[in-house]
Amino acid sequence: MIKSYNEKNVEIKNMRGGKGECKIVNHINPEELPHGRLFSTITIDSGNSIGSHEHHNEVEYYLILSGQGVVTESSGEHIVKEGDVVITGWGEGHAIRNDEAEPLVFLALILFTD
Fold first, then answer.
1. For the domain that residue 27 is a member of, what is the CATH number?
2. Which of 40, 44, 77, 96 is deepest in the core (most CB within 10 A)?
3. Distances (CA, A) of 107 to 76, 87, 89
4. DSSP 1
């Protein structure tokens, strides 16, 4: 199966109570992802963020495609840039924000652990 770009669901919305809105390109709908619930490219414009949230019985992966962001985890704040991978799960939480002028773009994948 191949899904062309025009078949994908694109959303603009606030995520997890963060600042501003994010663009989400859902590459696969949740019902097409039997072992997870999200496979999307997310764009966060300058000054915007995804608010803090936890992942229980699932793991979320961010692959940073372009730009630079700040991820907040229990261990503190970390700068992430192109090529970095953020892994959050097993009851841990995170948030991500864009303090830079250029958009922050990353691939997000959430898979179930149970």
1. 2.60.120.10
2. 96
3. 22, 12, 16
4. -
Q: What are phi and psi of 2, to 5 degrees?
A: -130, 130
User: pLDDT tens digits for 20-71?
Assistant: 999 999 999 889 999 999 999 999 999 999 999 999 999 999 999 999 999 9
Q: Which two tokens stand for residue 20?
A: 């501003």
What whole-number distance in Å separates Cα of residue 11 and Cα of residue 108?
14
Does residue 3 or residue 61 have the better pLDDT?
Answer: 61
| Residue-range definition of the domain harbouring residue 42 | 5-112
Reduce the DSSP state of residue 5 to 3 states and report it. Answer: helix
Are 15 and 26 in contact, with CB atoms under 8 Å apart?
no
Contact predicate 113/58, CB 8 Å:
yes
Alpha-carbon distance of 52 to 18, in angstroms, equals: 8
Angle, CA 53 vertex, CA 49 and CA 54 arms, to 5°: 150
Q: How many Å apart are CA 95 and CA 62, to the nearest integer?
A: 11
Domain count, the chain: 1
